[in-house]
Every structure is written in C-alpha cells, then in structure tokens.
Design a protein that fits this description.
Length: 463
C-alpha cells in the first residue's frame, strides 16, 4: 500500500519529546531538548519504520519499572556482587521485550557512559529562549574555605540522646506541630521532584541542587548520577517490587558511604576530584534518604539513627573541604567577586547542608525528642537571592553579583544564617531595628528556597 504523507510524518519527535508533547528539532545524535535534560534521545519502532533516524549510540532512558523479587548475583558498578533485578518491562514506554532482563546498576552505568560521550555544553536562559553556548565551565580548582568547625556537624545526631548536650551549652528550641508539619510537606515535595525529574534542567531537581552544576558535572560524579537514575523507578513501582527497590537503594547508600563517609581530610594530589565526589555523595545520600522516607517509608523499615549519622558524617567530610568562597570570607569584606563555578559549589553545598538540618529537626521533633539550634553553622551566608541562584549565563551572574556587592559590601557582607535566628536578649533597640532591616532587604530578592527557610526560622524563633 502506498505510504501517505500522514503516515510518514506521524511521529516527528523522539520518544521523550513525544511523551512530553514537546517540540523536537530532531538534531543528529540527540535533539536539543534531550541534550539539555540529559535524556537518551530515542525513537519508537513506529517512528523508525516511517523513516525516522535512531542515534546509534543512544540508550534507553534509565526510568525502569521493576518486577517483583526475581534476583540473581552479578557485577555492580564497582565490580562487586549485587542483586540483579529481572523486570517484566525495562522501559516505561514498553519498547524492550518482556523477556529481557536488566541490572539497575549496569543500566545506570551505561546511562552515565552515554552522558559522558554527549556532555552538554549549553543551557537555556531562564525565559526558555535559545541555548547560550558555554564551553568554559571549570568546576575544578574551586577556592573554598571552611569557617566553621565541621566536626560539630557529624556529632549532631547525638545531641537529642545525651544529657551532656546541656553541659556543652547547646541551645534547645521548640518546633511547633504546625512548623514540623510544614517542614515535612516541603521535604516531601523535594523527594517527589527528585523522583519525577532526574535531569539537569531547572524544575526537575530539588532546590539544593544547582541546575548548571548538575548539567556539567553529573557524568563525572557517579554517586549522584546513579542516584538520579535509580530513584526514577520509585515514581510508580510495580506492586510487590518495593522491597527490592529499598534493597537496591540502601545498597548504593552503603557503598558510597563506605567510600566517602570518613574522608574529611584534604589531599592536594586529588583534592579537586575527591571534593567533587564528596559533594555528589552527600547530595545523593540526602536524596536517597528523602526518597526512602517519603516514597518507600512503609517498606523501608528505616534505621533512622544510623542513616542520619551516616548523612551527617558525609556532611562533615564535605563541609571540611570548604563552605565559603575565599572572596566571601569575613562577610564579603574583601569586596571581590569569586568565579561563578566556585560560588555555585559553595552555595549548593550550603543549601544541601541547610536541607539536611531541616530534615534532622523534623525527624527529631516527630520522635518527641529535643531539637537544638545549629550553632555550629553560625556565620555561614543565608541562601542567596534569586538573581544569583537562577542566573543562566556567566555574564548574567556577574552582573547580579556586582549588584550584590554594591548593596551589601558597604555593610560588611550579606545576611548570615544566624541573623534569621532568635534576636539575642542583650541586643539593644538599635541593633534589633538594624537586624530587621537587613532581613527585610534579604527577603526582597530570595527565591522559593530562601522564603521557605525564612518561614521555618521565623515561626520557630520569631523576630
């Protein structure tokens, strides 16, 4: 039968664009939309038969549906023995034969390899316009310092359980049921965003991950790359597969905790790579914890104390490598501008750390245990404003940072996280007025994450 113009042009889009009902430019190797989002640009069999072209080195998307509890032993990403899951369907689109089998770790490894081969060097502007070419991203040699005692972070999990916390002059705080419920809902949304996203574009990752950083470092950071692939299976798991998912996620958590959890020293020989892997491990462990708690909680039988202890050890190791740009040190009194990449790493580290503290407070309050002020974080910058965090090009960020310096440098630096805490009892009236003025100025430019932090701290501490 003669092929009509309707049948030959029935599907002009790749599979991911078709599923999203988005326009596809069908570029060679990978369309722009898939490249931007770190997706595998594949075409359905119907599209192929109509004359569409499939990239030779494209791979199925890592979003898999897992069938119940069929396992065998095989090699994992690290070459260790692990459980192989044999699903009935290995793609949500049903493009793979039901007889095929998939090992989640190996599938993730292939996806990461595909991303390395096609590392994206462009990203869209905030208004969704054309991509701006960025070929000079260098997330190595970031100049960071740690102005706090990071060791206090890894001991935080002990405070609710020991009376010696009082002797150490820890400041207890009371979280109302309403603010605990609010924090719980916010963190639950972060888990949902992570599960439903998995790419490097803005809007598909939790707000403590920076989209530009994820986009340009994900192929070289296995802990986070594996995490964002595996958790996609948690969105709509097949009935009976939840226990297997829990086992897979917990195995990955244990694997890279053992590798990175105790690495809180700096080695000049491999400092750049190890620091990047530590940050990825910290962020991945936090994402796994959120997903296990909010998506698989009734199947996961969480060892909450052990998981939070490991998470805080990773936070300590990561923080020891630096939380503040050298140019930001002393409240920004140097009046200089750091490299964009250095600032991105510092800001995403701090946001991840603040998110972990929110989770710790919420879980502790739910257990009816006392919660304590994170005095060890005193002096760290409060979450940056929207113009800085959401800048999509280097010149856009530099202009925003110059404005930030002009506004805050004369005052000795931007707002610190402890300025959102309770006003000290010995602060005079002029000091109270000045602090509130600074907080009001900060609030003028914050994004959703900063506003959430203000809501939590304001309802907790007043002021």
């Amino acid at each position: 039968m003669k092929t009509t113009r309707y049948s030959t042009s029935r599907q002009k889009s790749c599979q991911p664009c078709s599923n999203a009902k988005a326009k596809c430019d069908r570029k060679a190797t990978s369309c722009s939309r898939c490249a931007l989002r770190g997706l595998a640009c594949t075409y359905s069999q119907a599209s192929l038969s109509g004359g569409s072209r499939l990239s030779l080195d494209s791979t199925p998307e890592p979003n898999v549906a897992i069938a119940p509890a069929t396992t065998q032993k095989t090699s994992s990403l690290a070459g260790e023995s692990t459980t192989c899951i044999q699903p009935g369907v290995t793609s949500l689109d049903g493009l793979v034969s039901p007889a095929s089998t998939t090992n989640l770790a190996e599938d993730t490894s292939r996806s990461a390899h595909h991303q390395r081969q096609h590392q994206v060097t462009s990203h869209t502007t905030r208004g969704g316009g054309s991509a701006a070419l960025q070929i000079d991203f260098k997330f190595s040699h970031v100049d960071l310092v740690c102005p706090i005692n990071a060791n206090d972070i890894q001991n935080r999990w002990l405070k609710p359980y020991i009376e010696v916390a009082v002797l150490l002059e820890q400041t207890a705080k009371t979280l109302s049921p309403s603010i605990t419920a609010f924090t719980d809902r916010i963190l639950k949304s972060y888990a949902a965003i992570a599960v439903r996203g998995g790419g490097g574009h803005r809007g598909s990752i939790p707000p403590f991950l920076h989209p530009v950083h994820v986009l340009h470092t994900l192929p070289n950071t296995p802990p986070l790359a594996t995490c964002l692939s595996l958790i996609r299976s948690c969105e709509k798991p097949l009935p009976g597969s939840e226990g297997v998912l829990v086992e897979v996620l917990q195995r990955e958590m244990n694997k890279f905790y053992e590798q990175y959890g105790h690495n809180n020293t700096c080695d000049d020989d491999d400092d750049d790579d190890s620091a990047a892997q530590l940050l990825a491990a910290f962020q991945a462990y936090l994402v796994y914890t959120l997903v296990l708690h909010y998506r698989l909680g009734k199947y996961a039988f969480l060892r909450q104390q052990a998981i939070m202890m490991h998470l805080q050890e990773l936070a300590c190791a990561c923080s020891a490598r630096g939380l503040v740009c050298s140019a930001e040190q002393d409240g920004g009194a140097q009046g200089s501008r750091p490299r964009w990449e250095t600032w991105i790493v510092a800001e995403t580290k701090r946001r991840t750390l603040y998110t972990m503290y929110l989770l710790d407070n919420m879980l502790t309050a739910k257990e009816g245990l006392p919660t304590f002020l994170g005095t060890e974080l005193r002096g760290l910058p409060a979450p940056a404003g929207k113009a800085l965090w959401q800048a999509s090009a280097r010149d856009e960020w530099e202009k925003a940072y110059n404005l930030h310096l002009a506004e805050w440098y004369p005052e000795g630096g931007g707002l610190c996280i402890d300025e959102l805490w309770a006003i000290p009892a010995d602060m005079d009236e002029a000091g109270v007025v000045e602090r509130r003025r600074r907080v009001d100025r900060w609030l003028e430019g914050v994004d959703e994450f900063g506003m959430m932090m203000y809501a939590v701290t304001s309802c907790t501490h007043g002021g």
